[in-house]
Design a protein that fits this description.
CATH architecture of chain C: Orthogonal Bundle
Number of domains of chain C: 1
Oligomer: heterotrimer
Chains: A mainly alpha, B mainly alpha, C mainly alpha
Order of helices and strands of chain C: HHH
């Protein structure tokens, strides 16, 4: 069987797994786990087999369902088109699904009605995979709907815990507004162009912008921004990442977010090819910067482990949107690299949070502490993830954030607008605040004193540690060998997004793109300017070793000598403490940055008031933001 | 509660109405599904008409009789069987060497016959079967939740 | 003549969005979602209309180059969209039932344990 059938087979394999689980897996856990493992490994193998022809060989696979090829230059069938950009995101999707499937074998073992879990999980995986591989706008809308339903069902899965059903309801209402806007945009596009195929739309819409297509662009942009959880639409994401089971939170933040980002890049770069308009670039950069900033400041004020990680996830997607909105090849490379790194390190952080939740029983930062003595392997994986997200060299977060700073400065120099230099300043500030927030979380959850209640917490089971190890190794490797990643994965994807000729020609027949006036631009390879990752790795190991030596040679019982603990009467220090027992000296998670929060009291009062928890308020933000986007598009994009 | 008892005692008029319209719904719906390729209709539309039979039985006889007559677990399994049948028929295209969802049995019967559209007839029937069982399952599930809205739920952190 | 359809569909969409934003009963919010879907379905069906065209059911010998019929693609899109709208309503209403059992209220102002 030739490899052109592989994309469709991968999607159908995941859906068949879901259907077979309903028929055979009602009562037997072994059958369920077996079916899920077979389908995830199968989908991973099928997509990985496409790397060689598509990424390395530069070929674009175009697959018309039912063999309905275009007739007289009009596309009449549904087509799957796999180019390098789609394959890049598809690799992220299948890797996340495989690791989450391995993790959830042990994580979900105490839950009941697991057949629903596995059915919804495989439907979610198939839906997102279909979204990134398809070449037809209405098919993309259908896959968005499948993804939304499965995500809502999985958020409300543990419905005996408070907050799960509420989070699912908010996600459904706001997500339904977004999908309706995408459908409206698709309908207007069909009315104007009489085709639903992305390649043909791309060649028709180049430069002919009538008011109807601008309205369609604004509506589809808003709808996909709702799916990607950018700032006015981000509130359900914070609730649902915290309420879902952790193996699903990892899939949400690693895969479902990226589907919205992929949709926006596909819409702006390929279907409408509107990236030359400076108004659109400014809009995307402004949205991205606001997202970055609001995400990280809300995260500093949280008391719950997973809700904090959810706000950080929103903030990192702001980085990706800012970089993609710059409009240059370097910016898009940085954005795609950061998307890949975000999947890796945020998935790792969520898996560690899940291990803590399963073993210690709570995610409230005020009640955790000192878990590094009991769960050392989880602590090391968490530290790798925390260093990556803060952008410390030599991990992968540093490489992608460096590329984004560089791209913003290059854009400021090239276009002469000084405002793009402020983007770099905001990005660096947000990075510093991310580091501060993760110091708070690490201190609150892993270092500090161990409460007596958590004294017999075990290390996480091995089957849960294996995905964490794989992801942390990938984080370190993609930070050190960023050149390899750029050459084989990022440069083909960026080239596919900016040069659309190959995409159109493969789908509609040769010569179509040139007849419609689409031309190619040569892209120089991304230069990371001069920094040597091996030197940074050596420096990092030296500093870590020094800190370790200082920690060991100091007194490890420095807290206890000040307390009159065991013998209150004839301890010689008892007079100084009037016989009191020692109190735990644990710095709680919410108290670490109290000075910062006090200085910015007005800002936090306003922004926490805006996150009111009422679903009508969130819908009001969504409608208001969509109105702003429509007005900006009509005003500036003639 | 007074309202619950009112629903439990079924009116003779409602029961007769349900008895009369039930075979009509079933047969007409099946006709719309099967003749989907030669007249307006098809899988979705016919499936919903047949699924309204569940609602008619509930209106005429109450929830207890309905749940004995139409079992939820059977509907759930049959829905997935319909979906599996659809995917297998679509994969016939790959097995025969052409694309996915290709019409591979295209020259069987004349125009206007029942089985004249090849793979499309069978695919339409499997979609109709899936919608029929799926919407019936959905209706019965929501109706079962209506019976016990006054029980307490304990929540945990 | 189709302008009436388009105006009505935009009116329905705006009415549905108004309901979601201002009403406080969660069942009314779900009904608002449904109204938005119905407005969009009306819009999609009205797109395909050609004034004076026939139904798009032909034998191979009857399709000549001057055949004038209504566009069948939006009809297929509308069917799919109606089914999706029904499923969204079903899922949202079952979540409403669960919310009532847990929070003992259907007022959206009081269902806000996750905030801040």
């Amino acid at each position: 069987m030739s490899y052109i059938h592989f994309p469709v087979l991968a999607v159908m394999l995941l859906f068949m797994g879901a259907f077979l689980t309903v028929v055979f897996g009602r009562h037997n856990q072994g059958v369920r786990v077996g079916i899920c493992t077979v389908t995830s490994v199968g989908a991973f193998a099928l997509i990985a087999a496409l790397i060689k022809p598509v990424m390395l060989g530069g070929e674009v696979i175009s697959y018309w369902m039912g063999n309905w090829s275009p007739v007289e230059g009009y596309a009449i069938g549904i087509g799957y088109e796999v180019d390098q950009l789609g394959l890049f995101f598809a690799l992220l999707v299948v890797a996340t699904v495989l690791l989450s499937a391995i993790y959830s074998i042990k994580y979900m073992e105490n839950d009941s009605s697991l057949d629903f879990y596995y059915v919804l999980f495989q439907m979610l995986a198939g839906g997102v995979l279909g979204l990134v591989l398809t070449g037809d706008v209405f098919n993309m809308f259908i896959m968005i709907e499948i993804m939304t339903f499965s995500a809502v069902g999985l958020t409300a899965f543990r419905n005996h815990k408070w907050g799960a059903v509420e989070a699912a309801f908010k996600y459904l209402i706001i997500g339904s507004i977004g999908s309706s806007m995408v459908l409206f945009g698709v309908a207007i596009l069909y009315a104007q162009c009489h085709t639903l195929n992305m390649a043909q739309l791309s060649s028709i819409l180049s430069g002919n912008n009538s008011p109807a297509t601008i309205m369609a662009f604004a509506l589809m942009f808003t709808g996909l921004a709702v799916k990607a959880f950018i700032v006015p639409f981000h509130a359900p994401a914070a609730d649902s990442y915290a309420a879902a089971p952790t193996s699903i939170s990892m899939v949400f933040s690693g895969m479902v977010n990226k589907a919205g980002v992929y949709g926006m890049i596909r819409l702006v770069y390929i279907i409408f090819r509107a990236m030359d308009s400076s108004a659109l670039q400014m809009l995307m950069v402004v949205f991205g910067c606001v997202t970055m900033f609001v995400g990280v400041t809300m995260a500093l004020a949280q008391h719950d482990f997973k809700r904090l990680l959810a706000f950080h996830s929103i903030s990192q997607i702001g980085y990706v949107i800012t970089a993609a909105g710059l409009g240059t090849a370097l910016g898009l490379t940085g954005g795609l690299f950061h998307a890949m790194n975000h999947t890796l390190f945020k998935g790792l952080l969520f898996l560690c949070a899940g291990a803590v939740l399963k073993q210690a029983g709570t995610t409230n930062l005020d009640q955790l502490g000192g878990l590094s003595k009991r769960m050392p392997k989880t602590t090391i994986c968490f530290l790798v993830g925390a260093f990556s997200i803060s952008g410390l060299p030599p991990f992968n977060g540093f490489a992608s954030k460096w590329l984004i700073y560089q791209a913003a400065f290059a854009k400021a120099v090239e276009s002469g607008k000084i405002i793009y230099a402020f983007v770099t300043v905001i990005a660096v500030i947000v990075s510093v605040m991310t580091l501060a927030s993760f110091i708070k979380v690490t201190q609150a959850a892993f270092f500090g004193q161990l409460p007596a209640r958590l004294n017999d917490v075990q290390e996480a089971p091995t089957l849960m540690l294996v995905p964490m190890w794989i992801m942390s190794i990938l984080c370190v490797l993609s930070g050190i060998f960023y050149n390899v990643v750029d050459k084989y994965l990022l440069a083909p994807a960026t080239d596919a997004a900016i040069n659309v000729t190959n995409y159109i020609d493969t789908m509609m027949g040769g010569g179509y793109a040139a007849a419609a006036g689409v031309r190619n631009i040569a892209i120089a390879p991304a230069e990371f300017s001069y920094w040597n990752p091996i030197l940074w790795l050596v420096l990092f190991i030296v500093v870590l070793a020094a800190a370790f030596i200082v920690m060991i040679t100091g007194k490890s019982d420095r807290g206890e000598i000040l307390c009159a603990e065991t013998d209150v009467e004839d301890g010689k220090y008892a007079t100084f403490f009037s016989g009191e027992h020692s109190l735990p000296s644990h710095v709680a998670g919410s108290d670490l940055f109290w000075g910062f929060k006090k200085d910015w009291k007005k800002y936090f009062h306003v922004i926490e008031g805006l996150h009111s928890g009422i679903v009508s308020d969130y819908a009001l933000w969504a409608v208001a933001a969509s109105a702003v986007i429509v007005i900006v598009m009509f005003g500036f994009m003639r | 509660m007074k309202l619950k008892e009112g629903i439990r005692e079924k009116n003779v008029v409602v029961k007769c109405g349900a008895d009369t319209f039930l075979p009509f719904a079933l047969v007409f719906g099946l006709c719309v599904i099967l003749l989907g390729t030669i007249s307006p209709g098809g899988g979705f539309q016919g499936g919903v008409i047949v699924a309204s039979a569940c609602l008619l039985v509930y209106l005429g006889y109450g929830y207890d009789t309905t749940s004995k007559a139409i079992k939820i677990s059977v509907l759930e399994v049959n829905e997935s069987l319909g979906a599996i049948l659809y995917v297998l028929l679509a994969c016939c295209g790959i097995v025969f060497g052409v694309r996915f969802c290709e019409n591979v049995f295209y020259n069987c019967g004349n125009i206007g016959d029942l089985i004249s559209a090849g793979t499309i007839t069978f695919m339409s029937f499997s979609v109709g079967y899936k919608v029929l069982t799926g919407i019936g399952f959905l209706l019965l599930l929501l109706l079962s939740l209506l019976g016990n809205t006054d029980e307490e739920e304990e929540m945990e952190e | 003549m189709m302008i009436v359809n388009y105006v009505a569909s935009v009116f329905l969409v705006v009415l549905g969005l108004y309901t979601i934003v201002t009403k406080k009963n969660i069942i009314k919010i779900v009904i608002g979602t449904g109204i938005v879907d119905y407005g969009i379905n009306l819009f999609i069906v009205s797109i395909g209309f050609n004034d004076g065209g026939t139904a798009p059911i032909f034998k191979m010998s009857e399709i000549l180059s001057g055949a004038y019929f209504v566009d069948p693609v939006p009809q297929a899109l509308t069917l799919t969209s109606i089914v999706i709208g029904a499923c969204v309503d079903a899922m949202a209403l079952s979540l409403c039932i669960k919310l009532y059992k847990q929070y003992k209220t259907v007022n959206a102002d009081e269902i806000r344990r996750l905030h801040g």
